[in-house]
Task: inverse folding
């Protein structure tokens, strides 16, 4: 390779790796400052003196509630949609409208989902700012992620498996149920995990529909407001009267949130690689 | 068979939900924004002052919010293009297999870091750097937000550009190499031009992410609603305005309705970017 080419290739490499260095810096900063704060007390106690002391238990539990609610709604709905789109719908007008809707949903800003949730669930249905409103809002936000990745998993199953089953006289649903889903389901769940990770980290949609900064007791029904990790971090970092004093708590909350979301994402990335190797058609 | 029919209808119903949600988003944004048209009047949105809380005269001009979002988005786009496109090109054309297996998941991790954490990092680490580097009074400026937003959009740009680069037929490359062009010449003169529509679509989808991002701009751009195009000024974006003000507003007030108008403008911008990007991608896939 001539010298000039070598230099340019190195420049490309340098630019690419600078992204890696920046990501590394962010993660290192959070881990270095957050790790000393992590303790059993921090994870298992409610906050005291509006977050200046104590832990973040209610925020962890709140995030788990919100995410679970979103999963219960979004995963069945998303998987059913992807099955319909790949296995039933021909390229008709309905199919096109559904696809356009999914693309639109994928692009809707998260704060607009918040406005929508506020208008529909909080006010119109009268659910108030609650776990129910927040979960439903998050569910619709992650729906496109789940649909798109489930479709990918369904398409990866070879056509011959369907044709063989249909040729033997099985109905369409029997074919899907017995011959397609068993191979596609792992991939479908993997894609869904990515959506779940996103739901856990989002702040804007729950800002208007579910989150409260400080609640003395844990929620007891789906109509209660909740604390949530991303919202807790936002308030501690920007709205707290003693912002500098609570800095360690901010780092601790950030680390717990990052760990939670990365666990979801790394699991998905790992499983995806695993299934790609397992099923090679 | 009856069971098959029932299942088919259930699946159809699920698919129809997506259409229903999009319709409901438009309906409910419109419903809450509607009252603004008669009182105080839609023309009030077309002015250059946003002063929603005032004892004398409340003003709901969207211009400073739109320029705020515009400024941050343009800056972020300028920053993300070299990194995103170079990253995609390097990963798909030059990286060894081992490098690729490390780089791709690592960049996916970036996509997974919650925006509030990026904003937190920006507030504590980046904004002091920006402040001292440019000798400003505050580090909470448009450029601070743009740097972080560019970072957040890079994974989107890389993964979609990479798809576009990968789907350039290998015969193009082989022909170029057979004619004696070097790998680098082939990349820049054959592969990139062939993948260009896909790369442009990737950039547009990245811009869509940037326009719609809320937490980072809320935390690091200073939130001053003024008409400016200087990267070193504090700005207030549309998303940050909704997030910051919706919590304190009285339901049904003019201010409340105005915030829904902000949402409608935001929705239309991202919708337009998305549809345009999809058209480009579709054209590209047909080849």
Result:
């Amino acid at each position: 390779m001539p010298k000039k080419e070598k230099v340019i290739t190195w420049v490309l490499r340098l630019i690419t790796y600078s992204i890696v260095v920046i990501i590394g810096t962010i993660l290192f900063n959070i881990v270095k400052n957050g790790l000393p704060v992590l303790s059993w007390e921090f994870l298992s106690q409610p906050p005291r003196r509006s977050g200046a002391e104590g832990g973040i238990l209610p925020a962890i539990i709140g995030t788990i509630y919100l995410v679970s609610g979103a999963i219960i709604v979004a995963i069945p709905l998303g998987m059913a949609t992807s099955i319909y789109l790949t296995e039933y719908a021909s390229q008709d007008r309905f199919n096109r409208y559904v696809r356009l809707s999914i693309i639109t949903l994928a692009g809707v800003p998260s704060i607009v989902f918040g406005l929508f949730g506020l208008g529909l669930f909080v006010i119109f249905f009268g659910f108030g700012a609650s776990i129910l409103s927040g979960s439903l809002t998050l569910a619709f936000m992650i729906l496109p992620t789940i649909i798109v990745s489930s479709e990918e998993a369904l398409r990866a199953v070879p056509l011959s498996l369907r044709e063989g089953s249909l040729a033997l006289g099985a109905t369409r649903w029997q074919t899907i149920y017995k011959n397609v889903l068993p191979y596609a389901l792992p991939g479908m769940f993997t894609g869904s995990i990515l959506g779940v990770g996103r739901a856990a980290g989002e702040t804007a949609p729950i800002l208007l529909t579910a989150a409260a900064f400080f609640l003395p007791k844990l929620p007891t029904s789906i109509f209660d407001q909740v604390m949530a990790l991303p919202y807790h971090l936002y308030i501690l970092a920007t709205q707290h009267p003693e912002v500098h004093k609570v800095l360690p708590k901010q780092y601790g909350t950030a680390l717990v949130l990052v760990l939670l979301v990365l666990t979801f994402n790394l699991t998905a990335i790992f499983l995806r690689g695993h299934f790609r190797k397992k099923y090679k058609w | 068979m009856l069971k098959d029919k029932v299942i088919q209808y259930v699946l159809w119903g699920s698919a129809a939900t997506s259409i229903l949600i999009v319709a409901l988003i438009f309906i409910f944004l419109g419903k809450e924004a509607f009252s603004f048209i008669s009182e105080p009047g839609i023309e009030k949105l077309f002015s250059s002052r946003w002063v929603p809380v005032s004892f004398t005269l409340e003003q709901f001009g969207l211009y400073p919010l739109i320029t705020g979002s515009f400024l941050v988005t343009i800056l972020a786009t300028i920053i993300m293009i070299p990194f995103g496109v170079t990253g995609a090109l390097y990963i798909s054309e030059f990286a060894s297999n081992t490098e690729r297996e490390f780089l791709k998941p690592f960049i996916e991790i970036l996509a997974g870091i919650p925006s509030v954490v990026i904003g937190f990092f920006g507030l504590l680490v980046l904004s002091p750097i920006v402040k001292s580097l440019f000798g400003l009074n505050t580090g909470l400026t448009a450029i601070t937000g743009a740097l972080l937003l560019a970072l957040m959009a890079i994974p989107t740009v890389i993964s979609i550009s990479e798809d576009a680069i990968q789907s350039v037929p290998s015969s193009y490359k082989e022909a170029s190499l057979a004619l004696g062009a070097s790998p680098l010449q082939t990349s820049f003169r054959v592969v990139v031009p062939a993948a260009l529509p896909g790369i442009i679509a990737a950039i547009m989808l990245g811009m869509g992410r940037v326009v719609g991002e809320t937490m980072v701009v809320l935390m690091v751009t200073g939130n001053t609603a003024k008409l400016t195009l200087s990267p070193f000024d504090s700005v207030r974006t549309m998303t940050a305005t909704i997030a910051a003000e919706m919590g304190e507003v009285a339901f049904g007030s003019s201010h409340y309705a105005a915030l829904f108008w902000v949402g409608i403008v935001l929705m239309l911008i991202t919708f337009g970017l998305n549809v345009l990007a999809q058209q480009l991608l579709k054209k590209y896939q047909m080849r």
In short: The longest strand of chain B covers residues 50-51. The beta strands of chain B are 50-51, 59-60.
